[in-house]
């Protein structure tokens, strides 16, 4: 066999394995009747040996045989193949059957077809009879549709091992129920959405081995069931009017939504089953207390009762001592008087009272109660639960609730949001860890006693009191609290937290907070800049590394003891004094970044205290009235002095004459009044400077002529209205300069830059620019947006920029489209030119 033939046959085999084979003739396709799981594909007496393979033409029968013998056959024994196929579902078994004869035979083994599921799929009587003949040991059958009666009768007569029968969506005559006794192995019968008998006569179901019977959404007038082994039965949503049961072992009965079933019929059916454990009569509006009382006498082991949407029951005279689950949703007769009867169910574990509109108070002492629901109880005002096993509680939309008292040793999470009238809360919950009382607008300050040590919640970790607008003074003393959220509590003016494990606190929206004490807390960061009225702060946080007081404009007293603090932002703290700053630097010696922008009360005494900060690297004194900077010339690598208009030229002399701050790397002198000579001296002498900002400078020129090597990398001179000329010659030795920004300098006319490594130059909105000389071989980006320079000057400037890639000349009125075309000739490295389409 040639290699090409082997490849063709292998490709053909893979297509057969993936189930992609298709019949080559229309007659063959017509013979294949499709139904659930493609059973006919498995049944075909002759393996379909005709298939079109893309690009290979049609193969004859002999070639297929060769493929089966040579290309596909695997060295798998029948036993091994049987074990492998046992993991496949019916659709994949059908696909496997298309591979070869061995696989087809193996996949058709009756062990894999114990369940014949034709639900929602059409199958003719002949096909179904053939399936029953092929798989006589099938134990489960599902059938639906108009031919349901014919098919199920064939199943009963052919399948002697049938254990599970599922029927639906059709008409089932009386004959089926008479023949049902012949199906001796049947254990489960399910009928859904079907018409039984004529719809008006009584249907009798008799079987001596059946354990489970489910008749749902069926149309039948009367039904009689005599099944001595029956354990569970459901008539849910059927329109039955009479049900007679003779099922002594029945322990689960579901009559939910049987609207036509009268109270007497429900009573007769339930009381005839003395072993009943579970009873569902939900949506049976005629059920009465008398029926439940009779059931309690006859069914001593009843543990589950669902009587939801039964408006006539009150339970006042009903005793259900063995009950563990009770559901009473939307029962209008349930009132506070019903609680006495419920309290008699000492084994109760689950209680649901949603939408009980007349319920005004709940007082229960149930030692085993684990789960309770109270949702949309509009008149509920008082809740008292003494349930040591309570572990889950759902309560919401009870607008009249004003008092809650809960005792539990198992409750870990309590969520009671949006209880507008709640004023009194008492908890004795030893395991409670999480509480959410969001939007309980009537809560008072007394709630703090509940969640402090000794208040009954010793393990509380997370407390949410968001939007509790009636809280004014908060004081928590807790050794367990980890997270506290007070967002939106706008009336709080005083906050006192003694919570050594507290790691997270949310104060967003606490606009009126005036006094705050955190002593001690386990916080690692804190933002109080959202509290604009804060005037006194006491903070003791041994693990805190970041503190933000930005915007606390009236803060005048601050005691901060954070030995690990590295970042402090006190911007706009206009009343912060030297004494506060000195005390803070003494107790926080590891501060690295200190922002004192717009702190006009800080003077020399406060700045002298910075000497105790050996790690200080960032200092911002912008917008202050400082005149003497001598106190700060100790240790700092970044200094910001924006808009310090009272600084004279001599104020910075220690930097470039006295050798102060030798490690200074970043300096911001924006909007200052320093003269050109002072700036030149600074740039020359401070050789470690890497970033300098002179935005808003009032100099007439900027020239760097000093023959001294510096490390300057970034120079910003944005919006300097009086600068007319910028010159950086080669002798300035600015070989490290990478970024130069001169944008928005409206009077700048001439720029002459010779810089070996400059890669970014921004001259946008320099509307007076006329002369541009560049000798920057590594410049990659040049921005000239909205400049008055002409095309010839730009062309000459970029001719020596051999690595220029981006050029922006938008809104340059003197540059035409012809000039733009010449730019690419002058600088071959250009990749992007931004210009107006009109140019």
UniProtKB/TrEMBL annotation:
Segments for region (Disordered): 13-35
InterPro entries linked to this entry: F-box-like_dom_sf, F-box_dom, FBL15-like, Leu-rich_rpt_Cys-con_subtyp, LRR_dom_sf
Domain of life: Eukaryota
Database matches in CDD domains: F-box_FBXO41
Membrane spanning residue stretches: none
Domain F-box: from-to ranges: 70-116
PROSITE patterns given in the database record: FBOX
Name listed for the protein in its UniProt record: F-box/LRR-repeat protein 15
Source species of the chain: Stylosanthes scabra
């Amino acid at each position: 066999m040639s290699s090409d033939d082997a490849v063709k046959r292998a490709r053909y085999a893979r297509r057969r394995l993936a189930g992609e084979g298709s019949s080559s003739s229309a007659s063959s396709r017509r013979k294949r009747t499709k139904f659930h799981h493609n059973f006919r594909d498995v049944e075909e007496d002759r393996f379909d040996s005709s298939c079109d393979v893309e690009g290979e033409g049609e193969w004859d029968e002999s070639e297929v045989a060769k493929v089966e013998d040579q290309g596909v056959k695997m060295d798998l024994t029948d036993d091994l193949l049987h074990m492998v196929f046992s993991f496949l579902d019916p659709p994949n078994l059908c696909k496997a059957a298309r591979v070869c004869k061995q696989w087809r035979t193996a996949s058709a083994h009756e062990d894999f077809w114990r369940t014949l599921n034709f639900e929602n799929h059409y199958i003719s009587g002949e096909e179904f009879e053939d399936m029953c003949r092929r798989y006589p040991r099938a134990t489960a059958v599902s059938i639906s549709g108009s031919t349901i009666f014919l098919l199920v009768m064939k199943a009963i007569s052919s399948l002697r091992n049938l254990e599970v029968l599922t029927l639906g969506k059709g008409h089932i005559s009386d004959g089926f129920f008479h023949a049902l006794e012949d199906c001796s192995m049947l254990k489960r019968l399910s009928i859904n959405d079907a018409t039984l008998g004529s719809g008006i006569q009584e249907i009798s179901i008799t079987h001596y081995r059946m354990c489970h019977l489910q008749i749902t959404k069926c149309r039948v007038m009367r039904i009689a069931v005599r099944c001595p082994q029956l354990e569970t039965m459901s008539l849910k949503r059927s329109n039955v009017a009479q049900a007679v049961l003779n099922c002594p072992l029945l322990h689960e009965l579901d009559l939910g939504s049987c609207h036509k079933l009268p109270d007497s019929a429900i009573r007769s059916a339930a009381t005839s089953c003395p072993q009943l454990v579970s009873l569902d009569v939900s949506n049976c509006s005629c059920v009465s207390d008398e029926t439940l009382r009779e059931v309690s006498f006859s069914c001593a082991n009843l543990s589950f009762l669902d009587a939801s949407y039964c408006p006539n029951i009150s339970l006042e005279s009903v005793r259900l001592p063995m009950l563990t689950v009770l559901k009473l949703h939307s029962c209008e007769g349930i009132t506070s008087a019903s609680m006495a009867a419920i309290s008699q169910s000492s084994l109760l574990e689950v209680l649901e009272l949603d939408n009980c509109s007349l319920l005004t108070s709940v007082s229960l002492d149930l030692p085993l109660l684990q789960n309770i629901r109270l949702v949309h109880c509009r008149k509920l005002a008082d809740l008292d639960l003494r349930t040591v096993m309570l572990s889950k509680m759902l309560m919401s939309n009870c607008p009249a609730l004003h008092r809650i008292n809960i005792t539990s040793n198992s409750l870990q999470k309590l969520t009671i949001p949006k209880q507008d009238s709640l004023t009194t809360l008492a908890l004795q919950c030893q395991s409670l860890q999480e509480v959410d009382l969001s939007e309980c607008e009537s809560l008072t300050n007394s709630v703090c006693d509940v969640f402090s040590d000794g208040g009954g919640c010793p393990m509380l970790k997370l407390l949410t009191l968001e939007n509790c607008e009636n809280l004014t003074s908060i004081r928590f003393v807790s050794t367990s609290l980890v997270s506290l959220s007070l967002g939106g509590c706008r009336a709080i003016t005083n906050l006192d937290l003694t919570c050594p494990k507290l790691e997270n606190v949310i104060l967003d929206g606490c606009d009126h907070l005036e006094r705050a004490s955190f002593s001690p807390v386990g916080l690692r960061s804190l933002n109080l800049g959202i509290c604009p009225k804060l005037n006194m702060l006491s903070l003791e946080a041994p693990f805190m590394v970041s503190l933000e007081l930005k915007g606390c404009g009236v803060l005048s007293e601050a005691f901060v003891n954070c030995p690990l603090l590295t970042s402090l932002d006190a911007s706009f703290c206009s009343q912060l004094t030297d004494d506060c700053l000195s005390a803070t630097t003494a107790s926080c010696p590891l501060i690295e970044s200190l922002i004192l922008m717009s702190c006009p009360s800080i003077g020399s005494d406060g700045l002298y205290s910075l000497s105790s900060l050996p790690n200080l690297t960032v200092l911002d004194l912008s917008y202050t009235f400082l005149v003497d900077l001598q106190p700060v010339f100790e240790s700092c690598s970044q200094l910001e002095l924006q808009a310090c208009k009272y600084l004279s030229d001599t104020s910075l002399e220690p930097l470039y004459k006295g050798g102060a701050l030798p490690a200074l790397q970043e300096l911001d002198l924006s909007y200052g009044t320093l003269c050109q000579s002072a700036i030149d001296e600074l740039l020359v002498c401070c050789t470690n400077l890497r970033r300098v900002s002179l935005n808003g400078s009032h100099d007439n020129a900027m020239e760097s002529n000093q023959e001294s090597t510096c490390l300057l990398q970034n120079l910003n001179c944005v919006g300097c209205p009086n600068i007319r000329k910028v010159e950086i010659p080669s002798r300035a030795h600015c070989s490290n300069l990478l970024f130069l920004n001169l944008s928005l300098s409206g009077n700048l006319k001439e720029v002459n830059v010779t810089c070996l490594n400059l890669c970014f130059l921004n001259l946008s909105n320099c509307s007076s620019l006329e002369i541009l000389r560049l000798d920057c071989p590594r410049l990659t980006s040049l921005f000239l947006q909205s400049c008055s320079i002409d095309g010839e000057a730009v062309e000459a400037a970029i001719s020596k920029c051999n690595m220029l890639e981006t050029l922006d000349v938008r809104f340059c009125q003197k540059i035409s489209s012809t000039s733009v075309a010449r730019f690419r000739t002058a600088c071959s490295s250009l990749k992007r030119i931004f210009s107006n389409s009109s140019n």
